[in-house]
Amino acid sequence: MANLCPFANATPKSDFTLSESSIPTEIYAQFDALRARCPLAYTSQNSGYWMLTRYEDIKACASDTSNFISSVKAVIPSDPRGTRRPPLNTDPPVHTPYRTAIDRTLKAARLKRLEPLLEQHARREFEELVDRGHGDAAAQFGANFAAWVEVTWLNLSDESAPVLAKTAAAWVNAWREQNKSEVRFHSEKLYDMARELFRDRRESPRDAESDPASSLLGEIVDGQSIPEEKLIDTLRQCLVVGMVAPPILFGNIAHHLAIDKKLQNHLRQNLHLIPSAIEEFVRLYVPYRGFCRTASIPTTLHGRTINPGEPITMTYAAANRDADVFPDPHEFVLGRDNVTSHMGFGRGRHRCAGMPLARRALQIGLKVMLEMSSDWDINGELQYAKMPEMGIVSCPIRIIPA
């Protein structure tokens, strides 16, 4: 049987050791090897977990929230303090009211109204790099613009943007290093921001469809409001999730277009192609290696049995480069017929809640970069993310103004 793993029916032991490399080409090489040789593989690293690398397997796992649950852990390695926050670390029906409240503030009409303000923020942030003639597309432009996107969506004060950018970056770096004390220190700063926002909205509530904190405060479950500590946990999670992926994506996009001048110029001359290009960039450079579920029932796949309580990582990055779904998977192909089938935003009920906002922000950011420049080149050493993310976290570029 072609799909039967060579370790089928064996007692779980390490089929592989997850690459410690932060270089994406090396990470993808391991994903490709596992997908071909052992699509359901086990490692004893991080207390032991299974890994899926084929698109259809990952799609099935992510879509089945009954048999593969999120309430045990959502990522590997997990938060070093064991913290579990809604909605990411919850299952339906507990998960539902949090997502309902968040989704309410991300409707197309509201996002359309936010576009001019988001473009204004993007232009101001990229102008700083253009005026200097150089800067970091990821750690400066990407991170600062992402902070303004969060501030705009959450209706925070303008003074919050630089604080959020600095604090979120420090928290993410500490988390990647699994430094418990630093994670706790920076996390508490983010919690303070969430608490202050809820204090303000209790005193001065806003329209629930245009303000996430007000929307969460108004959500009723079984006739009662959601406990405040859960609301604070949710908002605290919102403050971070939108700060992790965009800088990495902008770093990867800037690097790709610095190498592929033909594509850079083609997009600059055909700005209407940016939405399609962004989808392909997200497919190619999804910044998360994957997310985690835990089996709730015995599950047999590729001749192996996953027992209840055992974690499974869904490597969205591997799924997005499965040649059975995306021909020439390691190549940028503008206008792929099935590009929106990518899992760059996840799949199922835990698909990224901020997907519509993220898409618009990425499109606006790339448009601004292209319009305000005539070219850019790499201008220093690239730096790459550590687990559980992957991709470029520092991309110095030299910019030729438009």
From TrEMBL:
Pfam families: p450
PROSITE patterns xref list: CYTOCHROME_P450 (PS00086)
Keywords annotated in UniProt: Heme, Iron, Metal-binding, Monooxygenase, Oxidoreductase
Entry annotated with the keyword RNA-binding: no
Protein family per UniProt: Belongs to the cytochrome P450 family.
Annotated PANTHER family: P450, PUTATIVE (EUROFUNG)-RELATED (PTHR46696:SF6)
Taxonomic lineage from the root: Eukaryota, Fungi, Dikarya, Ascomycota, Pezizomycotina
Protein name: Cytochrome P450
InterPro entries to which the protein is assigned, alphabetical: Cyt_P450, Cyt_P450_B, Cyt_P450_CS, Cyt_P450_sf
A GO term, aspect molecular function: heme binding
SUPFAM superfamilies reported in the protein's UniProt record: Cytochrome P450
